[in-house]
Design goal:
two-stranded antiparallel ribbon, about 30% strand, about 180 residues
Length: about 180
């Protein structure tokens, strides 16, 4: 499942994920699943037809990532693998940062961050010019809707409808996600 929220130059992509890290850190072995949220750049392109044609829009490089993950074999609701990547380098995420507040109340933590895009950009090492005033206002206004979507998706993961391994590939080598 993939949800996209687009503003002016910034978008938010939310997807379910099932992930097996091929080189896990100690204590992070085994499959994990949950919901991934990324703040992404939006790049509109030139029209491909008449003035009435649809405008191509690319969902481009990530700026910030939040992974609301739990170990598949763990206790549901533990958020034992939940972390964020405050910044990225090109397409690659920075280091995983584990935050007690994020694991304790992920939706409240996320709501705070989404309501303050400028702070997220600062912490990500991104230029504030990456976002327009319309991005800042739009994300702040839509933050409750985005957080509610993430909450519904987490419910789907716990119910076994989302964040499941792809059927055809062995679970020990799978990284499945829209993002």
């Amino acid at each position: 499942m993939l949800y996209l929220f687009g503003f002016d130059r910034i978008g938010v992509a939310v997807s379910d994920i099932y992930f097996v890290d091929p080189n896990p850190m100690k204590g992070q072995e085994g499959a994990e699943h949950g919901v991934r949220l990324e703040l992404r750049r939006l790049e509109p392109a030139e029209l491909k037809g008449s003035i009435y044609s649809a405008r191509p829009i690319t969902i481009d490089r990530p700026i910030w990532r939040v992974d609301l993950l739990e170990s598949v074999d763990g206790r549901p609701g533990s958020f034992d693998r939940t972390h964020h990547h405050p910044g990225t380098s090109g397409w690659e995420p920075g280091q995983r940062v584990f935050d007690r507040q994020l694991s304790a109340d992920p939706l409240a933590w996320l709501a705070e961050r989404l309501a303050d895009l400028e702070d997220v950009l600062d912490r990500a090492g991104a230029d504030r010019d990456e976002a327009s005033p319309a991005d800042v206002a739009g994300l702040r206004e839509r933050a409750p809707e985005i957080v509610e979507t993430v909450g519904r998706m987490l419910d789907g993961v716990r119910a076994g409808r989302l964040g499941t391994p792809p059927g055809a590939e062995p679970a020990t080598s799978v990284r499945a996600s829209w993002l």
